[in-house]
Amino acid sequence: MPEFAETVGATPVHLGIGNYDGFHCGHRAIFKKAQAEAAPGGGIIGALTFSPHPEVFFKGKDAVRLIFSRERKDELFANAGLNFAIHEPFSDRFAEIPAEEFVCVLKKKIPTLAGLYVGDNFRFGAKRRGDIRMLSELGNSAGISVHVVSPVNYLGERISSTRIRTALTEGKIEDANAMLSLPYKSCGIVVKGNQLGRTIGFPTLNLAWSPELRPRFGVYVVRLRVPATGQIFHGIANYGVRPTIVAEAEARPLLETHLLDVPADTPPPTYGDFICVQWFKFLRPEVRFQGVDALKTQLELDKINALSSINSL
Questions:
Q1: Does residue 249 carry a pLDDT above 70?
Q2: E strand or H helix that includes residue 37
Q3: What is the structure's pLDDT at 33?
Q4: Closest CA to 286 of 222, 209, 219, 237
Q5: What phi and psi values does residue 195 have, to the nearest 5 degrees?
Q6: What is each CA distance from 25 to 44, 83, 131, 134, 213, in whole angstroms?
Q7: Rounded percentage of the chain residues whose pLDDT exceeds 70
Q8: Global pTM exceeds 0.70
Q9: H-run or E-run covering 191
C-alpha cells in the first residue's frame, strides 16, 4: 500500500481517520462515503491510521491485541480501492497536539485536503478534547468538508474492533467473518512439522503462525488457497499447541490443516509453498487426549462434521 505522496499537485485528497484494526464493515462504510464524494472531482482517497495503537501508547503493550498486522491492513486498504495510507507514529508529540490545531496540522501535511471522514465516536487532540462538533467547525473554517458516517450494526449491535476481538478469542468465527465482511485468514510458508499426522491418516500442512491476537485454540472448517497456482481445497485445521503430543514447556502455536478434497491427479501444496487458510466454522476446542488413538478417533469425527459444512461455504 503506497504511503502518501508529498507531490499530488492539485488533486483533492479525501481522508478517513481511525485505527481501522480489522477494517470491518463500519470502517468500509466510511470509505464508501469518501469514494462517493471524491469521484465527481477526481479526488484520491486515503487512510490516516496510527502505530502504535493509541491505547497501547497510553496504557502499555497489553492494552490492545491487534486483529491484523500492518501488512494485512494495507492489503485490505488496497483491495477496497484506497490510493494511499498514512501510518502516523503515535508519539508524545502527536498526542499533545491541541484539538484546536488538529485540522491545521492535517492541512499543512496535505495541502489539497478536501474532505475528512470519521465515525460518530471520533475524538482527537490532546486529552481527546476534540469531538465531531469541533471537527466540523474547524473543517468549515479551513474549507474542508467533514463527513460523519453512522455505525453499521450486526445482530442489533454496533460493529467494532472490540466485538471482533471478542468473537475471535471465543471461537465465534462466523460472527467475526460477518463483521469483517470477509473470511478471517492466515497466510504463510508451509513448514515441516513432527509428521505424526501422516502416520495416522491425517497429513497436515503446517504454518508456524502466531498473530498478536490469537483466535481460540481449536479445530475449524477452513478453505485453503495456493495463490501461485489458484488451487483451492477444503479442510479441517487445528490451531493451538497440540497438548496430546507436545510437552507444555515446548508448546508453540501452530496452524495444521488437513485437506479433505485433493483430487487423485492434483499435487497438494508442500513444504516451502505460500498458502492462505480462510477460517469458516468452529468445530470444537483443542483438548488433550489420552493418546494418539483417541486423537485419531476424534479427528475422524471432526472430518465427518466438516464435510457436512463444506457445501455451504
A1: no
A2: helix 25-38
A3: 98
A4: 219
A5: 65, 20
A6: 21, 19, 22, 26, 19
A7: 94
A8: yes
A9: none
* Phi, psi angles (nearest 5°) of residue 120: -75, -10
Q: What share of the chain in percent tops pLDDT 90?
A: 78
Residues 38 and 46: their CA atoms lie apart, in Å, by: 11
Contact 58, 108 (CB under 8 A): no
Task: Map grid coordinates 475524538 to a residue.
Answer: 123
pLDDT at 215 over 70: yes
Beta bridge partners of 258: 236
- Residue 120 near residue 159, CB atoms below 8 Å: no
271 within 8 A of 191, measured Cβ to Cβ: yes
pLDDT computed for residue 187 by the predictor: 96
d(CA 127, CA 95): 8
Grouping H, G, I as helix, E, B as strand and the rest as coil, residue 109 is helix
For the record, the C-alpha cell of 272 comes out as 516451502
243 residue type, one letter: P
Contacts of 26 (CB under 8 A, 6+ apart): 119, 149, 151, 152, 158, 159, 160
Check whether the bond before 183 is cis (ω within 30° of 0). no
Q: How far is CA 137 from CA 12, 106, 140, 144, 159, in A?
A: 20, 15, 5, 10, 28
pLDDT tens across 174-186, in order?
999 999 999 999 9
